[in-house]
């Protein structure tokens, strides 16, 4: 009986190997294509995708620890929590959407540097003349000569030409720390004591593509991923928690609040990163009524093609994600959200604190520990959620949970936003 089983197993593997060999010989055979046609096709650029959101209603769900290996005190804990309603972006923030932010910062700094027709000054207020700014030609040597230290010396650039220094594209973050102001020990103190101000360099870390993977050829992605229009509807990566927060601050002050002012509507809208609880709640709603086969694949990891490739060591073209992909390339979930389990992992606003689930409130739970100015490494850790293109199928799940320093940037880490609007 044992010999029969071994013979049956051997025949099965022979047939499997033969079948996959035929598959590779015929199914994946490629015809030669004229290079000029390939270049033309690959150079086509689609329209920029607008930022879209879906409403996530208030509700209750069971929040657990996802088997979090980073925590030694929270194994298998589950608790019901209540979440207020909010709006969430259907996709991760794209290169094009983040580019708009970077360009706004660039234009604001340049306009103030040039003065004259580009600004209007009334007392202590300086207003940008955006119509005049839109006509600025950043390739004009005469213009660049007027920008002084905002421009890199040609000897320090790859092209040996004058160009704006990305490190000088700085956004000023200003706000009020309500959590500190609400503490009893701070009662009676001046409101100005709780104002925060710091600056953030906004240009993404494009060299993250080179640092994340040693002995790997990712130069093309480092050079082109953020700058090429071809990737404009792909998720922005190489952005830190501070940069993602700065984008949200800009979106709030210069998009949402300004639109509310023009429409004479209720003021008070705010864009921000989601809390971990909000992210997980949205993911749980989005996964409702998912096909059982799809759910099993997410839970178990490898599918049939992965098993064939593992057993035969034969490469199967087109399987798996190599680098990030178009943000609406996958099937959207029940609530219209894309790519919570993969594409890129996502920042949350929640601080990582080991054992924090033991004392979080059950109403809109969140932990904020430390500030952007904190020097303590433990106070600088932020929770990131979801898998990414670099992960094995086992980790391409909404249960994936890690943490990073708020200044960290990676080629597999991006963000999506939530928006609160007055009812």
UniProtKB/TrEMBL annotation:
<dbReference type="InterPro" id="IPR051043">
    <property type="entry name" value="Sulfatase_Mod_Factor_Kinase"/>
</dbReference>
<dbReference type="Pfam" id="PF03781">
    <property type="entry name" value="FGE-sulfatase"/>
</dbReference>
<feature type="region of interest" description="Disordered">
    <location>
        <begin position="363"/>
        <end position="391"/>
    </location>
</feature>
<protein>
    <recommendedName>
        <fullName>Sulfatase-modifying factor enzyme-like domain-containing protein</fullName>
    </recommendedName>
</protein>
<dbReference type="InterPro" id="IPR016187">
    <property type="entry name" value="CTDL_fold"/>
</dbReference>
<dbReference type="GO" id="GO:0120147">
    <property type="term" value="F:formylglycine-generating oxidase activity"/>
</dbReference>
<dbReference type="InterPro" id="IPR042095">
    <property type="entry name" value="SUMF_sf"/>
</dbReference>
<feature type="domain" description="Sulfatase-modifying factor enzyme-like">
    <location>
        <begin position="52"/>
        <end position="418"/>
    </location>
</feature>
<dbReference type="InterPro" id="IPR005532">
    <property type="entry name" value="SUMF_dom"/>
</dbReference>
């Amino acid at each position: 009986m044992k010999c029969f089983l071994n013979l049956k197993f051997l025949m099965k593997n022979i047939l499997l190997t033969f079948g996959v060999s035929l598959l590779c010989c015929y199914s994946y055979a490629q015809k030669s294509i004229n290079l000029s046609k390939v270049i033309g096709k690959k150079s086509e650029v689609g329209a920029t995708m607008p930022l879209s959101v879906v409403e996530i209603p208030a509700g209750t769900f069971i929040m657990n620890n996802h088997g979090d290996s980073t925590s030694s005190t929270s194994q298998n804990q589950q608790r019901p929590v209540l979440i207020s309603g909010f709006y969430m972006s259907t996709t991760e923030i794209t290169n094009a959407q983040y580019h708009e932010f970077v360009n706004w910062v660039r234009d604001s700094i340049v306009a103030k540097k040039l003065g004259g027709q580009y600004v209007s000054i009334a007392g202590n207020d300086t207003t940008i003349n955006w119509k005049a700014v839109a006509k600025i030609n950043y390739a004009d040597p005469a213009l660049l000569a007027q920008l002084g230290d905002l421009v890199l010396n040609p000897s320090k650039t790859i092209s040996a030409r004058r160009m704006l220094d990305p490190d000088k594209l700085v956004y000023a973050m200003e706000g009020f720390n309500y959590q500190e102001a609400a503490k009893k020990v701070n009662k009676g103190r001046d409101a100005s004591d709780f104002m925060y101000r710091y600056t953030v360099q906004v240009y993404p870390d494009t060299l993250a593509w080179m640092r994340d993977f040693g002995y790997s050829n990712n130069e093309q992605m480092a050079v082109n991923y953020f700058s090429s229009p071809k990737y404009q509807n792909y998720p922005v990566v190489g952005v830190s928690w501070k940069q993602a927060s700065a984008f949200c601050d800009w979106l709030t002050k210069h998009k949402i609040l300004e639109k509310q002012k023009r429409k004479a509507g209720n003021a008070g809208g705010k864009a921000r990163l989601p809390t971990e609880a909000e992210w997980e709640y949205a993911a749980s709603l989005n996964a409702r009524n998912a096909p059982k086969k799809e759910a099993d694949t997410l839970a178990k990891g490898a599918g049939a093609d992965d098993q064939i490739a593992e057993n035969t060591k034969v490469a199967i073209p087109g399987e798996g994600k190599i680098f990030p992909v178009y943000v609406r390339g996958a099937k959207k979930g029940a609530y219209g959200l894309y790519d919570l389990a993969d594409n890129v992992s996502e920042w949350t606003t929640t601080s990582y604190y080991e054992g924090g689930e033991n004392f979080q409130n059950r109403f809109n739970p969140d932990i904020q520990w430390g500030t952007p100015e904190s020097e303590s490494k433990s106070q600088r850790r932020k929770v990131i959620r979801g898998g990414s293109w670099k992960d094995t199928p086992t980790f391409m799940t909404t249960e994936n949970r890690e943490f990073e320093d708020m200044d960290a940037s990676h080629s597999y880490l991006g963000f999506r936003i939530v928006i609160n609007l007055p009812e």
